Amino acid sequence: MAAKMIILAACVAAALRIQPAPAYKPAYSAPAYPAPAYPAPAYSAYAPEPAYAPAPYSFEYAVNDPTTYDVHSQAESSDGKTVKGYYSLIEADGTKRIVEYTADDYGFNAEVKKEGTPSYSAPAYKAAPAYKPAYSAPAYSAPAYPAPAYPAPAYKPAPYKAY
């Protein structure tokens, strides 16, 4: 048992022995480059952001796609200080959500309204037309070879063993 402890201690000591890393010595010296022959660029402070006067605008759009049931619209206008607008959309339950909003120096204010009663029925889809091939099916004659004739299988019952 003592021999095992001595061997274990020797293995641990060998594993923990710390050796310094070998010194790296390059085979050649670093190259020397001459100083650049042009002057360094002079950086100035960033130009201030130009201040543009508020520009009035107005836009409006609407989408009505019966294939995907996507129905929505938006309109917005600004006089340069106050933004007013609305948007509306048909939600999945069939109701119409209308949001009227105003944004000015006091912040953003939105009023949400809902019109209609929710209905959770699936939309009515048209059935696909029945498939009709563009050509008639080819008429094949019966095969030219005779049908194979096999003898009927004959089964013999297994013998009964009484134990």
TrEMBL record:
The protein's organism comes out as: Cinara cedri
InterPro entries given in the database record: CHIT_BIND_RR_consensus (IPR031311), Insect_cuticle (IPR000618), Insect_Cuticle_Struc_Prot (IPR051217)
Record keywords, A-Z: Cuticle, Signal
Signal as a keyword of this entry, yes or no, is: yes
Gene Ontology cellular-component terms listed: extracellular matrix; extracellular space
Would you say which domain of life the source belongs to? Eukaryota
This entry's Gene Ontology molecular function terms read:
structural constituent of cuticle
A Pfam family the protein falls into: Chitin_bind_4
Q: Hey, what's the signal peptide range on this chain? A: 1-23
Name of the molecule in the record: Insect cuticle protein,Chitin-binding type R&R consensus
